[in-house]
Amino acid sequence: MGRKRHTVESIVAKLREAEVMMAKGQPLVEVARQLGISDATYYKWRKEYGGLQIDQARRYKELEQENQRLRKVVADLTIDNSILKEAARGNF
Prior knowledge:
Layout: H1 8-23, H2 28-35, H3 39-49, H4 54-89
Helix pairs in contact: 1-2, 1-4
């Protein structure tokens, strides 16, 4: 079975829908089945996006992507710096 990517908006909407269904007394297993997700996915989403509004969740994702990009830049610069130090010492 293929992996389905959910948008931030759909995740937040499904979490709200799950809260409503569980408040009506439905068990988590039934709620997850109706939403088309697993129990583990529900808990992971609730941990990451629980209590966030759609715009906050979207901003959170953007910041994660920017942070990942910046980490790659820092790693590249660290490698370059290390190579230049080696070359300056004459250790080829």
